[in-house]
Every structure is written in structure tokens, then in C-alpha cells.
């Protein structure tokens, strides 16, 4: 597996208004969006976001409720690979190493190919390919 760079970091919030007050109002971060707040304008990170827990649950399990038996995540970290095919190869390596995948590689409507698992700390870990981020290098 060849991780090229850290592409996305997102806090996962159960309380979007409280997170909005901290990250937008108090810190003044240039975040946009209605529910999933994000910015591609912060130096050192391709994309920083605030991801509602219900959306994270939907992305990983197909339901807006985080299932019992899985640690409730507080953060999502996505690692970028060279191309969409590499997402599947990396996930297979992780499965062979004993990690349980939350969902298989899939292409999202905005062009990202991603598969996710959960770290021992409870973080959502994405193996990702976002074409736009490679065009920016």
C-alpha cells in the first residue's frame, strides 16, 4: 500500500450547532455547507470538515443511527492513494491484516472513491482517491 498524503480530516459531531459555534464563530474557519461543513482553504490539509454523526452512520452503515456495538467516532481521517483501483487493493491488504471494513470501495457522486474501516481508537479511517486533490499537487 502506498499512501500519498493525508487528504481529509473531519471531526464528527453529534451537535452541529455547538460545533458550528466553535469552528465558524469562535475560530473563524472558512467553512461552507449546510450540514457537512468543510473547507479546502486551510493550509496543511486538503480538506477539513465537520461531519454530522448521522451522515457518518449513513455513509458507513446505510442508516442515520450509529449502530450499537461499534465505538461512536469523534474523527474521520482519510488517506489518499494514487488512483481508484488502489483503494480496493489497499482495503484488501487491510482485510488480510485482520481489519474489518465498514464498507467496500465505492464511487461517491462527487467523484471520490472511498472505503472505510474503524481504528482501534474508534476513528473512521478512509482509504480514498479524490481526483481533484491530485490535480492540485
Can you characterise this structure?
It is a single chain. With 137 residues, the chain is an alpha/beta fold. It has a domain at 5-13 and 52-135: 2,3-Dihydroxybiphenyl 1,2-Dioxygenase, domain 1, CATH 3.10.180. Helices cover 28% and strands 31% of the residues. The longest helix is centred in the middle third of the chain and has 13 residues, at 84-96. It is globular and about 45 Å long.
The radius of gyration is 15 Å
CATH superfamily of the domain at 5-13 and 52-135: 2,3-Dihydroxybiphenyl 1,2-Dioxygenase, domain 1
CATH structural class of the domain at 5-13 and 52-135? Alpha Beta
Q: Report the span from N to C terminus.
A: 20 Å
Number of strands: 7
| Shape, principal axes of CA atoms | globular
Strand content: 25-35%
Helix and strand composition category: alpha/beta
| Helix-strand string | EHEEHEHEEEH
- The CATH architecture term of the domain at 5-13 and 52-135 is Roll
Q: What topology, given as strand order, has the largest sheet?
A: 2-3-1-4-7-6-5
Give the biggest beta sheet.
7 strands, mixed
Stretches where pLDDT falls below 50 for ≥5 residues? none
CATH topology of the domain at 5-13 and 52-135: 2,3-Dihydroxybiphenyl 1,2-Dioxygenase, domain 1
**Average pLDDT, to the nearest integer?**
92
The percent of residues in helical segments reads 25-40%
Output the number of helix runs: 4
Amino acid at each position: 500500500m502506498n499512501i500519498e498524503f493525508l487528504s481529509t480530516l473531519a471531526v464528527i459531531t453529534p451537535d452541529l450547532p455547538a460545533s458550528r459555534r466553535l469552528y465558524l464563530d469562535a475560530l473563524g474557519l472558512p467553512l461552507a455547507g449546510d450540514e457537512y461543513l468543510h473547507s479546502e482553504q486551510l493550509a496543511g490539509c486538503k480538506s477539513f470538515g465537520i461531519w454530522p454523526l448521522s451522515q457518518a452512520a449513513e455513509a458507513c452503515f446505510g442508516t442515520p443511527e450509529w449502530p450499537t456495538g461499534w465505538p461512536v467516532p469523534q474523527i474521520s481521517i482519510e488517506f489518499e492513494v494514487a488512483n481508484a483501483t488502489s483503494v480496493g487493493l489497499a482495503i484488501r491488504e487491510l482485510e488480510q491484516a485482520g481489519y474489518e471494513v465498514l464498507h467496500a470501495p465505492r464511487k461517491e457522486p462527487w467523484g471520490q472513491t472511498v472505503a472505510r474501516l474503524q481504528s482501534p481508537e474508534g476513528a473512521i479511517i478512509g482509504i480514498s482517491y479524490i481526483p481533484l486533490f491530485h490535480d492540485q499537487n
